[in-house]
Amino acid sequence: MLVPVKWLKEYVDIDVDSKELADKLTMSGSHVDSIEAVDKGIENVVVGKILEIAQHPDADKLVITQIDVGTEVIQIVTGANNIKVGDYIPVALIGAKLPGGVKIKKGKLRGVESNGMLCSAQELGISENVVPKENKDGIFILDKEYTLGQDIKETLGLYGEVIDFEITPNRPDCLSIIGMARETAATLGKPMKHLDIKINNQVDDIKDYFNGIIVEAKDLCNRYYAKVVKDIKIGQSPMWMQRRLMEAGVRPINNIVDITNYVMLEIGQPLHAFDLDKLSGKKIIVRRALEGEKIKTLDGVERSLDTSMLVIADDSRPMAIAGVMGGEDSEVTDDTKTILIESANFDGRSVRLTSRKVSLRTEASAKYEKDLDPNLSDIACNRVCQLIEEIGAGTVVAGHIDIYEGKAEERTLELSPEKANRLLGTDIEASEMIKMLNSLELNSKLENDKIVVSVPSFRRDLTIEADLIEEVGRIYGIDKIIPQPLVGTLTKAEKTLFRQIEDRAKTILTGVGLNEITTYSFISPKQYDKLNIAEDSMKRKYVGIRNPLGEDFSVMRTTLIGNMLEVMTRNYKYGVDKAWAYEIGSTFTPKELPVKELPYENRTLSIGMYGSSDFYTLKGVVEILFEKLGIKDYEYIREKNDPSFHPGRTATITLGNHVLGILGEVHPDVLDNFGMKERVYVAELNFELIVLHSNLDRKYIPLPKYPSVTRDIALVVDEGIMVKEIEKIIMENSKKLVEAIKLFDVYKGGQIEKGKKSVAYSITYRSHEKTLTDEDVAKVHDKIVEKLQENLNATLRS
What we know:
It is a single chain. The protein is an alpha+beta fold. It folds into six domains: 2-38 and 161-188, Phenylalanyl-tRNA Synthetase, Chain B, domain 1, CATH 3.30.56.10; 43-156, CATH 2.40.50.140; 202-404, Phenylalanyl-trna Synthetase, Chain B, domain 3 (Phenylalanyl-tRNA Synthetase, Chain B, domain 3, 3-Layer(bba) Sandwich), CATH 3.50.40.10; 411-480, Phenylalanyl-tRNA Synthetase, Chain B, domain 1 (2-Layer Sandwich); 497-693, BirA Bifunctional Protein, domain 2 (2-Layer Sandwich), CATH 3.30.930.10; 709-796, 2-Layer Sandwich (Alpha-Beta Plaits). A seven-stranded mixed sheet has the order 28-31-32-36-35-34-33, sandwiched between helices. Strands 3, 4, 5, 6, 7 and 10 form a six-stranded antiparallel sheet that branches. Strands 12, 14, 15, 22, 23 and 24 form a six-stranded mixed sheet that branches. It starts with a strand and ends with a strand.
């Protein structure tokens, strides 16, 4: 926000230079972006009056002027076409200096002597962005008679500095000259001069001119205050007002528009003036727009509206987009005679969303979207009427209309001086704290060792005691607070068991040759189709994102398999022959649909590989992980019903009643959907169950003292018998003597009955208590064979 220092001085007696003022305000919490001098190095430029204008004898586009500069009449040749006899203009005399190092010298133009130069606004260092339209392409025409020969810097106020403040969103009260004056007064410890708003002459009755206001969308309009001014005389604003607007970054338009902009900058409340004669029915209706309704705004652009937007309408059509910009149909023009001044308070979120939808951000919308104080509406409206009366631009009609339900009241907070000093590291007296808070217009008093503070409605950011402590600290001066060493007890931080196991799992998987990957939790809903997931599957019960980056990132994933296949496919297409990867990430399952609360977030482990790998490679990686994490007694169950996997090369991993996950070869149709031309093997495991069943305790036993005994066994069993069934029976009947089982042969052929297979094991026996005899081993070995024959109908192969 641009704040001219000389405007600020109207409210506060500033006795420091602008640099020191900026430093002090920065230390009290008002961040300064820059300081810019208004005087751009102008010298010897004075006020002049045009006495005569004559055509140049040798140039069609040049004229010869006679200019009275107070002490003499000088001749100047110019190409300007916007001047006339009697105009008061800035004149650069011989020897004058202009911004940019330009020096004015005596010269001739087409043989005619010229003793100076008539100046445009830009040549005086005024930015083209804020120059009034009538002065934009030509000489700067002054608004009235001034003392001839007077220094133009004094006439136009081309002195002083403008400070550019960065105002944080929580402080809309500082988006005004008065708001920054309040901060300045508190920072410098000076009293603040308040506006004295008086309207001396009000005539007639507003009811004779205006039929009232109907607020239909009460949730989007907190207050609507309006007054009427008649006998409007449209013209230029006084030069002092134009200069203040230009220094604050606003282009002057005409006296009525300039006054509304001036008061918006001064008080922080946006205003709008409607041509009352253009309002059908002489009434205002504050309502939501109709779907597809259109309005041509003041910038000449026709904009489409929808039912989420608030408009200011008359009986027949919208006349303004509330809080954003007025409509062309009700614009104040040279023919305007009666105006309605709107000073309203709209819902900040509504204005922000509307501004974004119609692609139109204005000074007004930038203020409204931060939720302004509704108690400013009547103050600002009456200030506009006061200024209109002062410059003679119209006559104020008596009365007003104020639609204001749910008035914003002061809040009461308590502040403990002892707590404030303890947190700030200061020793400030309670009376001094009260003085600081009162300087910010936070009316405070001491009651029972507590400071009771009445928080005005314009300070919506103050809601708890800590906010008041911050106010005391910043006005006291952050630079005055002596840094203190930290005091407290340090505790050793330690990761949770879950994180420890996760770190160990990553170390294990990286150690066997896998690369860790991280993918987005947002995926495309089309990914479920590519995975061939059934329509009624729980995996399709996903959480949609309200404001996605695009369709490819529009839902939260319920599985990591799609992400892993995307990575595998991308590497394959880049010409990578072999890729082994893993990811430990979150999947999201809604508690109910439609979603009403946060979903369940489940940690999931995904492993993927292609190239130099097969089902058993993947199975081996999983088993190494389980072994290192102390997970035992898990089982593999053949999985034929998961459409994402090959039905003959997939297994579900179970442990008791828990399903730890699934691993296997990806279905060829799924690979085609992803554009993958090589077999891919994927595992997806419930990492939370892995953590639950992990056992990081280790029991160490001494190396065996006694020798082992090995026996081989060859069995003929049904072809459908799983190896794990055989090994389970062996271990169950081992009497704790079986140290290892090794499958070394599986045979199907002509010597074996059809539907049967031969499996051969090498079983190692060992005791930790004695040397086993043949009788000891035979007793256990025979029992194992007996149970295999009994339970599996197995026969010994001879």
